[in-house]
Amino acid sequence: MEPYRQKSKKLSAMVSGLIGVCYVCVGLVLFFHKQLHLQFSLDNTFTYVFGAILLIYGMYRVIKSWKSYFSYSGQDR
Description:
This protein is an all-alpha fold.
C-alpha cells in the first residue's frame, strides 16, 4: 500500500497536468481565433503572442507533471 504522501504527490502532479492542458487549450483558441471565427477586441499581434506563450507554458507544465507523476509511480514497486 502506498503511503499517503506519495499518493498526494501523484494527485498533485495530475492536477498540475490538467491545469497545463487548460493552458494549452486557451492558447490554441487564442492562436487560432481567426480560423474559429472568434473576434476579440485585442490587437491580433498581442493575441497571437499571448496564445503562443500560453501554449509553451502549458506544454511545459504537462511535460513536467508527466515526469513527476511517472517518477512517483516508479517508486511504489
